[in-house]
Amino acid sequence: HANRLFPEIGDGEAINFFAFSSTQNHGFWYSHDEHFDGPITGYIDGREYRGSTLLFATLKREFDLDRGIFAPYRLAHMSEVAVKRLLTDDFGPIELPGTRERVEIVHRYGESFRSAPPHCNTPKKLVEIANQNAQPLATLYRLFSTVPGFSEDPLQKKIGLFAMEMISRPEQFLRPAPGEDIRPIIDYHLMRVCLRSGMVIPMRALHATNSARVFVSSAVESAVRSATYRAVRLLATLVRARLPHLTRVMSFVDHALWQARS
What we know:
This protein is mainly α and 262 residues long.
């Protein structure tokens, strides 16, 4: 199953695959009349996938056909038709929110590397630079904080996703220093878990809106995300105090909260 979603161990193009997929890892839901209407689903080779798993499945299918497809210099000038083909299931283009914005991210992401100096013009080279630093993980966050597709989020969710993949892969692409850990990765799943569990308590005025799954303003969303970030960071601190033998506390906490999402 894993090989349907991710590159084989030792594949020289794996970092390009994970870096690009991280820039597209958002917005896997349908809406109707300003309400949440369910997760996006699709079929790849007859198998049903949903959410970010669907993203990996469709990108991996394209990757298997052309392993160099996610090289930044190719993405910089990829046609809109070709970009949409990356996000296609057995029945055609997947209707993801913000398709126009996704195409723009592909071009800006690719161009940022294409125009960079030779020593840092690929994601792999940035990972290598990070590993040469005394604090590789912190350096990775800093280096990718200016890359389009990663740079837009002040809470750096996508950099955290990419960092987790680089650390967790058998190749150990990124090797954090002792004591380094990823930062909270705040997506809608964690926000929902924290709201349901009481880790985050919204203002009373938002209770009805939240229960009805009605869209909220960007300011309200930002406030809930920030509160969730602080709550998850506090939870990680408590876990670290009780389980000092854990070396990757945030990964442990993130997995536990992910399992509690349904």
